[in-house]
């Protein structure tokens, strides 16, 4: 019999609003992407100097993961290898690729070059939280709840992982949307079943 899996927390950052488990925690309407991401970092009083060197995709995904896990994840319940990430987006690292290409016309920027892969955002999250489990990044034309549900379920049901951060982290110019889910085998008082319908519903209500 297939074991039930649960979404024990969710976090979205879109439209200059931070949403955790369906409730808006912070907004900064009118700010550009970079000032907004910095204001999120400052509002939640995070102290992590490495944040300032990240590209926009990494800042967005890293902040969403930070807020997702805060007071929702018991790290002591898992070994580092037990927790992994499965993320996806549409444009890979194109936002940073374009910025890097512009620097090539004069002096290529090594600081940007290291972020010209979409999976670097997962590396930043794993460095912060000492996660050493499975990491996968997929590119789709649009958010694919069915694939996410099938892929993450297989990882947890086979024992490859015991907990997984999964979802969508997309940014290109001023258009961005992060929507992350924490998936575990155990319930909490906010848990809902990890189904394609529930995944899609959370994405849709935050995407607008």
* Total strand segments: 8
Strand content: 25-35%
| The level-1 CATH class | Alpha Beta
Provide the helix percentage.
Answer: 25-40%
Question: What name does CATH use for the topology?
Answer: Peroxisomal Thiolase, Chain A, domain 1
Radius of gyration: 17 Å
Specify the overall morphology: globular
Number of helical regions: 7
Largest sheet: 8 strands, mixed
Distance between the termini: 36 Å
Keywords:
Peroxisomal Thiolase, Chain A, domain 1, 8 strands, about 210 residues, eight-stranded mixed beta sheet, alpha+beta, about 25% strand
What would your notes on this structure say?
- This protein is an alpha+beta fold.
- The chain has one domain (6-207): Peroxisomal Thiolase, Chain A, domain 1, CATH 3.40.47.10.
- It contains 7 helices and 8 strands, in the order E-E-E-H-H-E-H-H-H-E-H-E-E-E-H.
- It has helices at 33-43, 56-69, 94-104, 110-113, 120-129, 145-157, 196-207, and strands spanning 6-14, 17-20, 23-27, 83-89, 135-139, 163-172, 175-184, 192-193.
- It is globular.
- It starts with 5 loop residues before the first strand and ends with a helix.
- The model has no long low-confidence stretch (mean pLDDT 94).
């Amino acid at each position: 019999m297939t074991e039930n899996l649960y979404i024990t927390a969710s976090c979205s950052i879109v439209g200059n609003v931070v949403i955790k488990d369906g409730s808006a925690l912070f907004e900064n309407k009118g700010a550009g992407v970079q000032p907004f991401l910095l204001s999120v970092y400052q509002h939640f009083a995070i102290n992590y100097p490495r944040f300032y060197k990240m590209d926009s995709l990494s800042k967005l995904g890293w902040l969403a993961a930070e807020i997702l896990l805060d007071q929702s994840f018991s790290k002591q319940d898992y070994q580092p290898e037990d927790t992994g990430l499965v993320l996806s987006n549409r444009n890979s690292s194109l936002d940073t690729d374009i910025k890097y290409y512009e620097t090539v016309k004069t002096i290529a920027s090594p600081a940007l070059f290291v972020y010209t892969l979409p999976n670097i955002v997962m590396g930043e999250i794993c460095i912060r939280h000492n996660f050493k489990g499975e990491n996968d990044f997929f590119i789709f034309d649009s958010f694919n709840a069915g694939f996410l549900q099938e892929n993450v379920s297989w990882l947890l049901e086979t024992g490859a992982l015991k907990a997984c951060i999964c979802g969508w982290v997309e940014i290109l110019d001023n258009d961005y949307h992060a929507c992350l889910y924490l998936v575990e085998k155990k319930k909490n008082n906010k848990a809902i079943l990890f189904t394609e319908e529930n995944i899609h519903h959370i994405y849709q209500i935050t995407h607008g």
